[in-house]
Amino acid sequence: MAGNTSGKTAVGTWIGFALIMLWCLFPVAWIISLSFKSEGETAAGSAQFLPKEPTFDNYKAIIDNPDFTRALINSFGIALIATLLSVIFATLAAYAIARLEFKGKRLVLSLALAIAMFPVVALVGPLFDMWTTFGLFNTWPGLIIPYMSFTLPLAIWTLSAFFREIPWEMEQAAQVDGATSWQAFRKVIVPLAAPGVFTAAILTFFFAWNEFVLAISLTSTTSSRTVPAQMSFFVGPDPFNPPYAQLATASVIVTLPVIVIVLLFQRKIVAGLTSGAVKG
Amino acid sequence: MAAIEMKNIVKKYGDGFPAVNDVSIDVEDGEFLILVGPSGCGKSTLLRMIVGLEDITDGDMMIGGKKVNDLAPRDRNLSMVFQNYALYPHLTVYENIAFPLRLANKPDSEVDEKVREASKTLELDEHLERKPGNLSGGQRQRVAMGRAIVRDAEAFLFDEPLSNLDAKLRGQMRTEISRLQKRLGITTVYVTHDQTEAMTLGDRVAVLKRGVLQQHATPRELYENPANLFVAGFIGSPPMNFLPAKVDGNKVELPFGTLTIPEDKAAKAQGKGLLIAGIRPDHFEDASVMDADKVSDEATFNATVDVVEWLGNEAYAYIPFEAPPEVREQLTQLEKDLDGESMRTQLVISLDGASRIKEGDDATIWVDARKIHLFDPSTGENLTMDADNAGIVPGAAEALAKAEEVGKEQDAVDPHAATT
Fold it and tell me: Which residues of A touch B (CB under 8 A)?
């Protein structure tokens, strides 16, 4: 009886899984398939799913396109620097919030949350004005600063939750063993909070990598335009017939780093690293 | 290695909670000192003040003749074993033990030599490359000890290191710690709430109640000459029996009958009205298993045994009795102070394993009347204490009174205080 029920549940679960996977991955599969179709095939409005004559021409064209490669470099540079800075600041802030008792702690946390509530679009205008005045318009820092600010709240909240989980004795033990506060933080607390740090880093990187509104509004040339913004300039010679195949190819290329990063770090994001620190 | 001197140490928390009150304890070079008391007595706070994890409100903390009040933990050169071990889960056992040496920037060869030596002492050789998460409780405990002994610290500090182990392992580790300390001859301060650990490990034991030092003496002195009701009730297992008593000449009237006590003891307890008599369970015996010439009518009584627990080498017999309301209140309070919760007033008697007394029997029990202690019910002071063999008793009767006072103050700040 019990086995029967659990068997049914398992079947149901797998059907559910399959449906969700199909729902999520079908568009991805379509984009991949599209990226291998020749221009003629997409222009003719071919209805079949798989390309008739698979070709790498789109990939060659995209990689030979200096605008695209330049945008790719911008994307990597801006996203990585924003992530690094955001994680460093968030780690320090979250540690202070988790460990220290100070006045206005709640205020800091609520403010951080409040910042995250502003829609990005509402800030584009003021930012544009400020950046043109400060000479930050169309520069890397002009995008790094807002990306960092928008991801800090989430990073701080994620990390302070991780820090709170670490037993305070670990740090005290390190201090008794002869560590300065900084050494205790660097050699004991940060390694233990590594899953949190990676989680925060990945979230920040994704935000910066995928962001479009700021990228298109605060840049004017390829010197700082990121890939999502650059892709909107792929119009081709005929405005009524955009180069779908090339757009799909660019999408595939821009998605690859994200997939690689997730695969690389998914093992790092396992919780429970602190097990064994104390008697459980 | 160094002596540790605590001079009039006071700890008051920010909210006014007085955790430690005017405690003065000297730990001699190489001595094994135990800080013992029920939860919330300030023993852990005191230890954390020695190591520097807790600020000292008032008083002087001297290590090796140097005042260390304002030194950071890392500058005090002490090593500590935490209650939950606080091992670094991201490092292997080897690196856990090597951690203090790495921080001191010792060359690799020296680190290796010392870690191997410590791991050999603690039999951790085959676990060196494992992570703490894969070790058993006892192994983790030994790693924590390894981290403590690997460097030449001035003193070892233990904060209830065995409380997370099961009973069998606790016994083994207790012996191990004792052996290690004797071999290394290093000054040690050990915090526990377990009176067995206190008795077996310590050269001397400091008993604390509500942040006030009650008595600082060798285990034997504490057992034979407790300064007051609290110490008497805390030290010894099963605990000392407390009975209402009236002294008339050298006769003591107890709920079960009248005993004759030595003249010098009786003299100290004259004219005090109702007293509390304290008799340890092992100072009773089943009269039928004793030599006839030792048993006299003056030292025996008859009583109905309620429950018998036979353990092979000995047996515990329980005999309920009625206590008059004047002492009952004092005894209930004492029980609460000792973290206990006894439902009835009863006598616990340790009998020889050969005794044939059964539940419900009317037995003849012999009492060693020379070993009786008499306590003043109002102050809790031990009237019959042999002051020459009782170690250091700060303020005699006042210590308990002061603990009461501090207790009220603590309750005023935080009625649910359960900090240790």
Answer: 167, 169-170, 172-180, 183, 188, 191-192, 194, 273-279
Find the domain containing B150 and state its range.
4-221
Domain A62-265 superfamily per CATH: MetI-like (1.10.3720.10)
Residue B420: the pLDDT is 40
Instruction: Report CB contact under 8 Å: B103, A179.
Output: yes
**Domain CATH code at residue B45:** 3.40.50.300
Tens digits of residue pLDDT in A180-210: 989 998 999 888 888 888 888 888 898 899 9
| A168: closest chain B residue by CA | B86
Q: How far apart are CA A166 and CA B89, in angstroms?
A: 11
CA closest to B156 among chain A residues? A176
Judge: B73–A175 Cβ closer than 8 Å, yes or no.
yes
Q: Is the ipTM of this complex over 0.95?
A: no
Spatial CB neighbours of B77, under 8 Å, sequence gap ≥ 6: A178, B153, B154
Q: At residue A240, does pLDDT exceed 80?
A: no
* pTM for the whole structure: 0.79
Give which of A177, A182, A187 to mutate to test B binding, by max B Cβ within 10 Å: A177
Q: Which of A172, A192, A278 sits opposite B90 (nearest CB)?
A: A192
Residue of chain B nearest A177, judged by CA positions = B100
B90 and B145 in one domain?
A: yes
- Residue B67 is assigned to a structural domain of this protein: yes
Q: How many domains does chain B have?
A: 2
Whether B82 contacts chain A with CB within 8 A: yes
Q: Are residues B46 and B170 in the same domain?
A: yes
Helix (H, G, I), strand (E, B) or coil at B311: coil
Domain annotation covers residue B397: no
Where residue B418 falls among pLDDT bands split at 50, 70, 90? very low
Q: Average the pLDDT over B238-266 and give the result.
A: 87
Q: How far is B97 from chain A (nearest CA, A)?
A: 10
pLDDT per residue as tens digits for the range B58-72? 999 999 999 999 999
B131, closest residue in chain A (CA to CA): A276
pLDDT tens track for B101-153: 999 999 999 999 999 999 998 889 999 999 998 898 889 999 999 999 998 89
Nearest to B72 by CA among B56, B86, B58, B53: B53
